[in-house]
Amino acid sequence: MRIRFFNTFDTVTPFFRNLVPYLASRGCRVEVVVSNAMYRKGYDLSAALGDSENIRVVKMANLGLRPDSGVGKLGVMALYVVHAAFYCLFGPGAD
Fold first, then answer.
1. Angle at Cα 88 formed by Cα 72 and Cα 92, nearest 5°?
2. CA–CA separation, 32 vs 86, rounded Å?
3. Within 13 A of 66's CA, how many CA atoms are on the CB side?
4. β-strand 29-35 against 2-6: which pairing, if any?
5. What is this structure's pTM?
6. What is d(CA 33, CA 58) in angstroms, rounded to the nearest whole number?
7. Separation between Cα atoms, residue 78 and residue 3, nearest integer Å
8. How are strands ordered across the β-sheet holding 55-60?
9. Contact predicate 1/26, CB 8 Å
10. Residue 9's pLDDT is what?
11. pLDDT top residue among 39 and 15
């Protein structure tokens, strides 16, 4: 089974950190789509999820925008929504 998650808020990261490796250990192919923008310095969701061939982290481009200001954060969020929608519609399939 192929499962895709979209990380929209940083607060769900602990949920992904526990659920994604569990699903991968049960044979599911899990994909997590995240923004490439760093909201917290030094934290990478890829490292938190562990190393498994059944886990794939897809980082959406932020085109150099940074979430340091209100305008930058809004731009990053809007770009993520557009990229995630295109990825969902035209990217690899999920169950």
1. 125
2. 15
3. 4
4. parallel
5. 0.76
6. 5
7. 24
8. 2-6, 29-35, 55-60
9. no
10. 67
11. 15
